[in-house]
Write a structure and sequence with these properties.
Elements: H1 2-8, E1 14-16, H2 24-28, E2 35-38, E3 46-47, H3 54-60, H4 63-72, E4 77-80, E5 84-87, H5 92-104, E6 108-110, E7 115-120, E8 126-130, E9 133-137, E10 140-142, H6 157-164, E11 169-175, E12 179-180, H7 183-190, E13 196-202, E14 207-214, E15 218-220, H8 222-228, E16 237-240, H9 247-257, H10 263-267, H11 273-280, H12 282-285, H13 294-305, E17 307-309, E18 313-314, E19 322-327, E20 345-347, E21 355-356, H14 361-374
Parallel strand pairs: 1-6, 10-20
Antiparallel strand pairs: 2-5, 3-21, 4-5, 7-8, 8-9, 11-19, 12-15, 12-18, 13-14, 13-16, 14-15, 16-17
Helix pairs in contact: 1-14, 3-14, 9-13
Bound molecules: flavin-adenine dinucleotide.
Flavin-adenine dinucleotide binds near residues 34, 321, 322, 360 and 363.
Length: about 375
């Protein structure tokens, strides 16, 4: 996006990437359909130590601007829950569009090129030493992404270059990532692997309502990925597995009106039987409602609507969709993304300390920040 915009202004641009293919993350994103943006974008959908930083770029190049390009290329897309926009056919449509735009303005994309080191000379120009020789430039834009999914070519290059220029870097961790569980919980819940439940997942700072998914390693699903970006090691999260029901009131009513019905019969329409067995046990589920006390009803509500669980950790960068932390935004211009430490040096996209929610927010940040830098480099 940055290269295209700079190219439109007549700048001579080369994109250097060690990958064999351009835009690999775009191609695998959104299950191959690329969740390229979201109808509802605001600063609240981003995690950063400077929550205001992203506002300027997101308002200068918006989701509507990106959608306009998509429409121009007649790429069919659809909306899913929470305003998320996906390609109807394939993420390849987005890549083809970007490559076509790049070609129009004669951008050179040089793949298989490892960056060895960069230096700024006294005249402020940059020298970039690569596996394919040396390059000289007046501006240097770092769009090297985060650390997520190393097997797809993620490296700490951007952080290293930032450090070289004396930038402060917030510690990085995996975000939008499944949780692993303590051994005892893992044993208990792994038998529920494959079950997805629409839930509210919360901690003291935020809550998300989406599916959670039990896996053989722990907990995943959109609600879990979202809260993982707000989770601190050692902290418990709370899960409400029946967010649309006043469970205590419902069970008391059923106890009074269907006293002979078994608890299992009362709950089985709301939650899968396998899950009920794990959470409440066979003995309780087989009891008629008349044999269930009010304090047991409270206990059932606590277990199903206030399920507190302390994850053991996350699956880490191996499966994370995003990297939290990164280059401190306070040392970058929110209008141009230029470094306050070195003129002509820019950082865009995920390498910065701006991480979006699940739902197209990370690509929109990449488009918006790239577009802004492209206006000035
Ligand atoms: C599995 C998965 C699915 C995702 N799905 C979505 C989605 O549907 N919607 C969404 O909004 N976000 C999604 N994301 C997040 C999104 O892909 C990233 O936030 C976005 O790609 C960041 O763009 P970027 O340009 O900053 O970095 P990247 O897209 O990561 O690009 C960085 C580039 O730098 C290159 N590079 C890295 N190190 C070096 C080096 N040392 N030398 C040379 N080149 C180097 C890499 O090869 C890569 O091409 C997903 C992420 C993952 C992992």
């Amino acid at each position: 996006m940055c290269a295209i915009e700079a190219g439109k202004r007549g700048r001579k641009v080369v994109v250097l990437d060690h990958a064999r293919k351009a835009g690999k993350k775009i191609l695998i994103s959104g299950g191959g359909r690329c969740n390229f943006t979201n109808y509802n974008i605001s600063a609240e959908n981003y995690v950063s130590h400077n929550p205001h930083f992203c506002k300027s770029a997101l308002s200068r190049f918006t989701q509507w601007d990106f959608i306009a390009i998509i429409n121009n290329y007649q790429i069919p897309f659809h909306e899913r829950e929470h305003g998320q926009l996906f390609c109807d056919h394939s993420a390849k449509d987005i890549m083809a569009m970007l490559l076509a735009e790049a070609k129009k303005v004669k951008i050179k994309i040089q793949l298989n090129t490892e960056i060895k080191q960069v230096q700024q000379q006294e005249n402020d120009n940059f020298t970039i030493e690569t596996s394919q020789g040396y390059f000289q430039s007046r501006s240097l834009i770092i769009a090297s992404g985060g650390l997520s999914i190393p097997r797809m070519g993620a490296t700490p290059l951007g952080y290293k270059i930032a450090e070289q220029f004396d930038h402060h870097i917030w510690p990085t961790t995996a975000g939008l990532v499944p949780f692993t569980l303590q051994p005892e919980d893992k044993n208990k819940f792994s038998e529920l692997s494959g079950i997805a439940i629409n839930s509210v997942v919360s901690n003291e700072r935020i809550q998300f309502r989406e599916n959670i998914l039990f896996t053989h390693r722990g907990l995943s699903g959109p609600a879990i990925l979202q809260i993982s970006s707000y989770w601190q090691a050692g902290e418990a999260i709370e899960i409400n597995l029946l967010p649309d029901l006043d469970l205590t009131e419902y069970l008391i009513r059923e106890k009074n009106t269907r006293s002979k019905a078994h608890l299992k019969t009362i709950l089985v329409d709301s939650l899968p039987k396998r899950l009920l067995l794990t959470f409440l046990g066979e003995e309780l589920l087989d009891r008629p409602m008349q044999a269930i006390s009010l304090s047991q009803i409270d206990d059932i509500t606590r277990k199903l609507q206030h399920w507190k669980i302390k994850p053991n950790g996350t699956e880490g960068y191996r499966t994370a969709e995003v990297t939290l932390g990164g280059i401190d935004c306070n040392e970058l211009s929110s209008k141009t993304m230029e470094s306050a430490k070195a003129s002509g040096l820019y950082f865009i996209g995920e390498v910065m300390d701006v991480s979006g929610w699940l739902g197209g927010y990370n690509f929109q940040w990449a488009w918006s920040s790239g577009w802004c830098a492209g206006q000035v480099v």
